[in-house]
Specification:
With 286 residues, the chain is mostly helical. The chain has helices at residues 3-9, 23-29, 40-77, 83-96, 118-160, 164-177, 182-195, 198-214, 221-259; strands spanning 269-273, 279-283. A hairpin with a 5-residue loop joins β1 and β2. Pfam families: TPR_1.
Length: 286
């Protein structure tokens, strides 16, 4: 096929100027109106509607979670205690509690009402935004308080069941929401004390210090916290040495398993402390 035939078979490019009205139309009637488009105000109203719908769902979830929390409280306070049922109720409450969304910054939107000045429209929008922010803050605070209480109560159940690690985790989750939640601080201190590791005893010591500093003088938990603080330093030192010896023993076993392939063992290597600090490695063949 020749170049001329190829050019005749291809469509010519679109030229919008060919469809513009003649000059006399513009002179007589002006420029044609632009197509209507959605305004930022419409977008804001749509986002507000979505936000209100989300808040309605969150209120229902919070209501259900609160009912489950109350059921867990009844199980925990029953005589005898129904600890498994209480644990199940509190866990279900946590499953129903909505996540706290990140704060949303609401910018004032233009009103579009001609009779109101721009400053007046901005003031109205700002007032509406403050009202919605207050409602959102109240809803989030209610969710936060319920979540904190459920984690704290779940920690109490785990303490009663002597599930010390789970108790520490539950109380720590409550304290992430409210570091001043002293019931959770006390329960975590007790659980860490019972775990008895070097790390957990050190954590218990810090929690007991917090209790001694913040508990009222008439609190029945205050003498317990003071007694624990009196004994913990010695217990921490003993446990630290114990875990250090255990770690060195495991390292020695590992070293012997490797050196044994060459007819050696770790007892053949001695460390001599140097006067200026540090150690010198010395080999002794028995």
């Amino acid at each position: 096929m020749s170049d001329s035939q190829s050019s005749q078979g291809e469509p010519s490019p679109f030229d919008a100027r060919l469809f513009e009205p003649p000059p006399w139309v513009k002179e007589r009637f002006g420029d044609p109106p632009k197509p209507a488009s959605s305004t930022s105000s419409d977008d804001d109203h749509f986002e507000d509607a979505l936000s209100e719908a989300d808040m309605g769902i969150e209120e229902k979830l919070l209501e259900r979670a609160t009912a489950l929390k109350d059921a867990g409280n009844r199980h925990f306070l029953a005589k005898p205690r129904r600890l498994d049922e209480a644990c199940a109720s509190y866990t279900a409450a946590l499953d129903h509690l909505p996540d706290l969304p990140p704060p949303v910054l609401v910018a004032p939107a233009p009103s579009g009402i001609q009779e109101v000045t721009e400053d007046g429209a901005a003031a109205i929008d700002a007032e509406n935004a403050r009202d919605k922010d207050t409602e959102r803050e109240d809803a989030e605070q209610a969710i936060r308080e319920c979540t904190k209480a459920v984690y704290g109560n779940l920690g109490a159940v785990y303490v009663a069941q002597e599930e010390w690690k789970q108790a520490v985790d539950a109380c720590t989750s409550a304290l992430k929401i409210d570091p001043g939640y002293l019931k959770a601080v006390h329960r975590r201190a007790v659980a860490n004390d019972k775990l008895g590791t070097w790390t957990s005893l050190s954590s218990a010591q810090e929690d007991y210090k917090t209790l001694v500093a913040l508990l009222p003088r008439t609190s029945p938990q205050l003498p317990e916290a003071k007694r624990a603080l009196a004994t913990l330093p010695g217990r921490i030192a003993v446990q630290q040495e114990k875990e250090k010896d255990e770690m060195l023993g495991k390292l020695k076993d590992l070293g012997n398993s490797l050196l044994g392939k060459f007819g050696l063992n770790t007892d053949m290597f001695k460390f001599d402390e140097q006067p200026g600090g540090g150690y010198n490695l010395r080999f002794e063949q028995g």
